[in-house]
Each structure stands twice: as structure tokens, then as C-alpha cells.
Amino acid sequence: MKAIKCKDLNKRFYRKNALNDLSFSIEENKIVGVIGRNGAGKTTLLKIIAGLLKEKSGVIEVYGRRPFNNLFVSANTIYIDDAMNFPTALTLKEILEEGKRFYHHWDHDLALRLFDYFGFNPSQHHNELSKGKESTFNMIVGLASRSPLTIFDEPTTGMDAAVRKDFYRALLKDYLAHPRTILLSTHHLEEMEDLLEEVLVIHEGSLKLQMSMDDLKEYGVGLTGKKDVVEPFLKEKEILWKKEQALDTCYAVIKNDLTDHEYQRMKEAGVQVSPVKANDLCIYLTESRNEKGSVDDVFDRSADV
Amino acid sequence: MSLIEVQTSEIVKKQIGYKWRAYTGVFTSLVVIQLLGLLFSLNGSGSMGSGRTVYDVNITYYTADIVVGFTIFWGFLTAFLLTTKAYREDDFAFVTNRKTSTLSTIVFLFMICVIGALTALLSGFALKLIAYFILPGEEMLLTQGVGNVSAWLLGMFATIIIVFMFSSLGYLAGMIVQLNKMLVIVMPVVVVGLMILLSRGGFQIQVYFFEFFFEENNAWLFTLKTLSATTIFYALSVLVSNRLEVKQ
């Protein structure tokens, strides 16, 4: 059974389309990264999957049921983001105990051990925590719930590098011991490369790419060289991204479907062929298609005046 | 991880327990508002005096009327507050859907209304004690005990369902406001405006409202009227709440 099935999903906020005809499906028991720029619609999508928002049109199914206002989906899903609202009257320890009451698979032992490890004070309140501590606590709730579908929306907000590393390890260890479907949205793809099995790239509310992490790492290839030398090679190729650099050189990213023959010819012509990191590739793929160029151009123009 | 099927009743029960532990703030406000009520009651809720050449008689009634009034207001306000975003999102931190969330809130409201009504009525005795010991005057205090137990219990029951009815009104008002922030302003304006308009036309809706509920002498009819109104208000708020999304 598919964990999530989504077809022609649309969501509109007052004036803006947040999701446009989004279609994809996710198998059970995978760790999937949801990647996209700010405002691409990641959070909206995740909230619709968690049943917190209502879709405008299209089909969304979580374990075969429509998530909005659905008790079954709620019982089998946990949605963790950086704006979790826990009752201010409860202490951190009491919040964990509430989690234990609500989630059938809740591992209280794990929750308490993580709680100790990250140095929380049991009598503290959730609204007194610092940004990073709050994210860490929410992460503990998310992990301990062991929900069949666990959704983390930018879980690492505010965490320092050491805690992030711990989080990735904890997530992976717990996932290996208790496989479940985990959705993660993140801006730190380079840190999560080894964690994610599959990636959904979302751009302006539509699906740009869905592939396994391994494929994504080899999806693109970068060509660097003199402009007039590189240019002929780009014909008949799908150019994912291109940037002209100083001294008439340019850097182009194309799909990695070069034959040995082409590869040889490029080498002879003096074109440098380099792999493209998954993180960079996602940035290139989600570059807005308008004529604004890069942030450099903003400054160049003001220099002209 | 295996998928779990849950029963609505099971989740409602858990939610009630959760709210009971999480929303302790409502009891703080109850204590504060009833203490305030007690303070104002020290002035007496009614008095009469008569004088002759030789003696003066001045009778002051110390009753919990003001405390009960304040408690009704508290019921309205608490229910209203429970519909605000922060509280609704607290609900959705754990397993729930609209139905279980609303049902558990209504049960929770009923529980706190019972407590509020009970303490409000008991404060009547506290008040008499305070008045007896503290208030100055050439007093000859005539303290009346519980008197008729069944009458007191009936009063208790009536207070509970009245407070509960006002909580349902507050809950409905809160839910309507949650639909659109503009309604915070629009709704009171419309309600008060309508009352003024109608009273100009000779139909005083507030007077009619009070006559309808409070001047009903038949206990059964009173119960029927109050409980039906409560049911209608809660049913309407369920209808309204089903249109709400959780997080935006």
C-alpha cells in the first residue's frame, strides 16, 4: 500500500496559489526529503498531508483515506514543525506523558533517554525554551511517537551543528530499528544526503522532480570551459542551469546522459566535467525562471548608476 | 509500524483528561472572579430599612447573587477563550479531529461549569460567615441555614445549567469570530445594533430573553428551555467549526 497518494492537488490562499496540480505518491517505510525554496509550498503540502489544512481540489490520500478532519490519519500521523503549540500549563515532562497517552506506538523510554541526553529540565515549560531547544524537544516528541507517518517540517530550525548531527543519527537509528514513513522538509540537503532515500523537489507549488537520492546525486553534470568551446556541446542537451563567468568562461549544468564518446570529446576540447552536488542541483532546479538573474546582478546594477 | 484504528469515544476520553490537566488556567480565573464577586457582595445584594422614633431597622441581604452572576460571565468568557487559535492548536498537538475536539471541549466545559456553579453557591455561606465576623454594625444578624435542602439542590441544578447555557453561547460566539477576524467587530455591532433597533420598535429582546429563561416558574419547563437552547448553540458551533482549518 502507498503511504501517500496525491493527484492534481491544488491549494489556494486568498490571492496566491500555493499548490498547483501536484501529483506524486510515496511508498511506505521510506525517508523522503521535501526540498524547495522558501514559499515553494512545502509546508502547505505537509500540512495537507497531516490533515491540518483542507485541499481546494484534487485527491490526497494517506493510507487510503482523505486526511482532513480524519481521526484515523491523525492517530497514525504526527506533524512536527517549529511552531508547535503545547499547553503552557504543562511541563515538558507532562507533555511527554500526554504523548504517551495519545500515541499507541509511543516509546516513553526512548523519549526520556533523549530528554536526559539533551539536558532538558523536567519542570521547564515549552514556551520558556530557546529556539534551538524548542526544536530539539519537538524532535523528541516526533521520534518517540513512532507514528507510521512522521512528518518533520524544517525540524532543525535553530539547532546548532552538533545537535543537528545528533538528530540525524537518532532519526536514522530509530528508523532502522522501527521502519516507518518519514517526511522531512529541509534547507540542509547537504547534511541529510546520507539520511534520505528519496527526494521530492517542489518549485512554485508543483512537483519538479521525484527520484531516489542516489539518482539525484548523479542526475546532473557540470561543464566548465571557454564559452565558445562549451556552447556547441550544449546543443541537443537539456540545460538545467547556466552561468557566464569572467574571462569568457561559462559553467553549465546538464543532465547526466553523456556517452563515453561525448565525454572523450569534451576532454579533448578542454572542457572540465565535474559532478554536481545534490544540494546545488536542487538550487539550480528551483531557480525562478524570470529575468532577475542572480543576487550579484542586484549589486552590479546599482554600481552602474 | 502497524496502522492503528482508534475509536472516537476513546479519543474523546483522552482529550477530556488532557484538557483537564492542560487548561488549569480556567480554575485560576474562576477563583479570581469569584473572590471579586465575594468582595462586591459584601455591600449586600439587597437591603431595606425602616425607622420609628425609638428604633431603626435596617436589613441587608447577603447572598451569592453577584458571585453567580460573575460565574455566568466567567462561563461565557472561558468558552469563548477555548475557541481561540492557541487553545485549538493545543488540541491538535496530539491525536484528534474536529468532532473529538469539540465534543471533549463541551464535556470539559460542562465539568468546569458544575464546579463553578457549586463554588458560586457555596460562596453564599462563606459570604454570610464573612459578613458575620467582619462587618461592623450594631448587628443582630439573622443567618438562615440551608433551609430546604431540596430547594437548595434545585437552585444548584438551575445554576449549573444556566452557566452551561452561557458557556454554549460563548462557545458559539467564539467559533463565529474564528471564521473571520473582522467578525470580532462586526458581530457585537450587529447584536447590539439589533437590540437597539428592536427596542425602539417596542420589542425589547433582552427583557424578553430574561423573561423567557429566568422568570419561568415551572422547573421542568425551565430545564427544557435552557437545555434546548444549550443544545442549539453547541450544534451551531459544531457546524461552524467544521469549516475551520487547523493551522495556517
Automatic annotation (TrEMBL), chain A:
Q: Where are the transmembrane segments?
A: none
Any one Gene Ontology molecular-function term assigned to this protein's record: ATP binding
Q: Residue limits of the ABC transporter domain?
A: 4-229
Q: Which UniProt keywords apply?
A: ATP-binding, Nucleotide-binding, Transport
Q: What name has this protein been given in UniProt?
A: ABC-2 type transport system ATP-binding protein
User: Could you tell me which species this protein originates from?
Assistant: Halobacillus aidingensis
User: What Pfam families does UniProt report for this protein, alphabetically?
Assistant: ABC_tran
Entry-linked InterPro entries: AAA+_ATPase, ABC_transporter-like_ATP-bd, ABC_Transporter_VariousFunc, P-loop_NTPase
Q: Which domain of life is it from?
A: Bacteria
Family matches, as PANTHER family: ABC TRANSPORTER ATP-BINDING PROTEIN ALBC-RELATED
From TrEMBL, chain B:
Q: Which residues cross the membrane?
A: 20-39, 59-82, 103-131, 151-172, 179-199, 219-240
Keywords attached to this Swiss-Prot or TrEMBL record, sorted alphabetically, are:
Membrane, Transmembrane, Transmembrane helix
**Signal peptide range in chain numbering:** none
Supply the name of the protein: ABC-2 family transporter protein
Organism per entry: Halobacillus aidingensis
